[in-house]
């Protein structure tokens, strides 16, 4: 004898399985927790801050007279 199946329950079960598969795909794509995102953003901000802090200032404008004398010592003008 065959088993009697309630179609409403089967449809609901299939819909839940489909939703679970979709949720698993989304977790794989967007699966970082809030803590991981915040830690990553904080690390990025720290690295940017450290890089900006280590930046060297320019010595002066390119047409500076003191720079010119260092480049061409035999030029008296």
Description:
With 77 residues, the chain is an all-alpha fold. The protein has a domain at 7-43. Helices cover 66% and strands 0% of the residues. The protein has helices spanning 7-30, 34-53, 65-71. The chain is rod-shaped, with a radius of gyration of 34 Å. The N and C termini lie far apart (112 Å). The model has no long low-confidence stretch (mean pLDDT 82).
Compose a concise summary of this entry.
By secondary structure, this protein is mainly α. The protein has three helices and no strands.
Rg of Cα set: 34 Å
Beginning-to-end CA distance, first to last residue: 112 Å
- Note poorly predicted spans: none
> Strand pairing plus helix content: what structural class?
mainly alpha
Shape: rod-shaped
Task: Give the topology string: H per helix, E per strand.
Answer: HHH
**Helical segment count:** 3
Strand content: under 5%
Mean pLDDT: 82
Keywords:
single chain, 3 helices, 77 residues, mainly alpha
Tell me the layout of helices and strands.
Elements: H1 7-30, H2 34-53, H3 65-71
């Amino acid at each position: 004898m065959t088993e009697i199946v309630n179609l409403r329950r089967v449809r609901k079960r299939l819909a839940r399985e489909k939703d679970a598969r979709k949720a698993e795909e989304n977790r794989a794509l967007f699966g970082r927790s809030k803590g991981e995102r915040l830690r990553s953003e904080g690390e990025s901000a720290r690295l940017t801050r450290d890089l900006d802090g280590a930046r060297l200032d320019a010595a002066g404008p390119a047409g500076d007279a003191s720079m010119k004398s260092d480049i061409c010592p035999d030029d008296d003008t």
